[in-house]
Amino acid sequence: MTNILNFKPDGDLAAVQPEDGAPAPDRLISGNPEFTTWNIEEATGGIYAGIWQSTPGKWRVEYDEWEYFNILEGHSILTEDGSNPIHLKAGDRHIIRPGFKGTWEVVEMTRKDYVVRL
Q1: DSSP per-residue letters across 74-112
Q2: What does the buried/exposed string (b/e) look like for 64-83 if buried means 16 or more CB atoms within 10 Å of the residue's CB?
Q3: Which residue, among 40, 53, 38, has the nearest Cα to 6 in the 3D structure?
Q4: Who has the most CB within 10 Å: 54, 86, 99, 100?
Q5: InterPro entries, from UniProt (predicted)?
Q6: What is the β-pairing status of strands 93-96 and 66-80?
Q7: How many CB atoms lie within 10 A of CB 42?
Q8: Are strands 66-80 and 101-117 parallel, antiparallel or unpaired?
């Protein structure tokens, strides 16, 4: 067994069982967004890594966890309450810290890779 896990975000994810989801109904603002998540790694200590994508829509988000992400394709708008919107496009990388509250709006189907620590 190797201690290196390699995954290509634009590669074949067929070996990973995707999870489908959507925002909770009480958080939905507009649209009918549908999520697909390929959770590639689940490590001790509450660390997760994988690929996430969503169809267009807008919903409220609240983060209790820490997340690093890299936008692979699409266009989304992330807005923290009381702050200016951040337009997210391919190549954009951000960290969201615990305590973030705001909205996530997918304008054009968005795909990102992520690392989350609970």
Answers
A1: EEEEEEETTS--EEEETT-EEEE-TT-EEEEEEEEEEEE
A2: eebbebbbbebbbbbbbeee
A3: 40
A4: 54
A5: RmlC-like_jellyroll, RmlC_Cupin_sf, UGlyAH_Cupin_dom
A6: antiparallel
A7: 11
A8: antiparallel
| Amino acid at position 12, single letter | D
Q: Give per-residue pLDDT as tens, 82-110.
A: 999 999 999 999 999 999 999 999 999 99
Nearest to 34 by CA among 15, 51, 53: 53
- pLDDT attached to residue 16: 85
The two structure tokens encoding residue 49: 């890594």
Half-sphere exposure of residue 115: CA atoms within 13 angstroms, side-chain side: 8
Within 10 angstroms of residue 29's Cβ, the number of other Cβ atoms is 13
6-10, 16-20, 100-104, 114-118 — which is least confidently predicted? 6-10
